[in-house]
Amino acid sequence: MIIDYTEEGSSHSFDLGGIFHPFVFCDYELEAFNNIGQTLFVISAERCSCNVYCCLPCDSCNKSSFKIKDLYENILGQIEIVNYK
Question: Which of 2, 3, 31, 49 reaches 20 to 30 Å from 38, CA-CA?
Answer without folding.
Answer: 49
